[in-house]
Amino acid sequence: MFDTRRPGLIVDRFVNAGSTRQRFAPPPIGTYRFGKGTFMPRYSYHRTGYSRAVFAVSLLLMVIATVLQPQSSLAADDPNDCGEPGEYGVIVYEKPNFEGACQSFSPQTNVDSEILSNNRIGNDRVSSVRVGSAARAVLCEHEHLNGVCETFFRDIANLDIYRIRIRTSSLYVGPDCRAGAQMDLVPSEAILFTEPDYGGYCLALHAGENWSDLRASFFDESPVFDNSISSLRLGTDVEVELCEGYDYQGACHVFDTDVASIGSKDEFGPEPNTASSVIVS
Ligand SMILES: [Ca+2]
Ligand SMILES: [Ca+2]
């Protein structure tokens, strides 16, 4: 079983590690290499009559190209510039650190994004994702939200260190945990809340994603989920087993439907708010 201590809610420190990867330094601006080891200032080479003619023809061609270019293919359609995700939107990028080709998605495009190979971004090409302040992004390994899925509430600069890696074939855009009972879950998604009635902090997990110790808090913001899971919502294809001890020890109880308040010991096994580990299947 896959064991993870990374709740989707929080940006963990691996994200920062991924974004500081070494990159090649570009050549200094204004210099360019011509011929064997010779550096010359860019654009200031000696102009012969021949180069003047080339320059004039180039300028003429540029003017003609600009005049003939249809308005719709200007900056608005730049495949490498998707702007901001907006409050409820999501932008996916071909390269880490929000670079390369990109595509914007929203709750209105969830039908289109069930098969990413039919989209501009393409299949198995999403390497980083930006998530709007009130949105969540569910990325799945296979088309139609099947296979390994993972939920993100924050920008992720490098997905290769996450469970989904660079395998996204479908995605879903929905509201974040503040929507509580109104959240529209994908089939494999389970959301655990720290307050009754789907309130407080939330932890989004998917089938196969288990958490052996809810004390783990290696996050920038450290809501403690240990002994505080008080309500939960489940997608149609998922079950959650809460255990009162760490490493799935002690009394455990399986939930297969939404629970607005994890109540009495008689009803649910562990006493209220005692869960310390969780299995999602
Ligand atoms: Ca895939
Ligand atoms: Ca406990």
Distance between the termini: 10 Å
Uncertain regions spanning at least 5 consecutive residues: 1-48, 71-75
Query: Count the strands?
Result: 16
| Text of the CATH class of the largest domain | Mainly Beta
> What gross morphology would you assign?
elongated
Give the CATH architecture of the largest domain. Answer: Sandwich
How does the major sheet shape up?
A: 3 strands, antiparallel
Radius of gyration: 25 Å
Features:
281 residues; mainly beta; Gamma-B Crystallin, domain 1; 2 domains; three-stranded antiparallel sheet; 3 helices; 11% helix; disordered N terminus; binds calcium ion
Explain this structure:
By secondary structure, the protein is mainly β. It folds into 2 domains: 2-19 and 78-175, Crystallins (Gamma-B Crystallin, domain 1); 189-280, Gamma-B Crystallin, domain 1 (Sandwich). It has helices spanning 13-19, 49-68, 265-268; strands at residues 2-3, 31-34, 38-41, 90-95, 99-105, 128-131, 135-142, 146-152, 170-175, 189-195, 199-206, 209-210, 231-234, 240-243, 252-255, 277-280. The strands form 6 sheets. It has a 3-stranded antiparallel β-sheet with strand order 5-4-6, with no helix packed on it. It has a 3-stranded antiparallel β-sheet with strand order 8-7-9, with no helix packed on it. A 3-stranded antiparallel β-sheet has the order 11-10-13, with no helix packed on it. It is elongated, with a radius of gyration of 25 Å. Mean pLDDT is 79; it is low at 1-48 and 71-75. It binds calcium ion (2 copies).
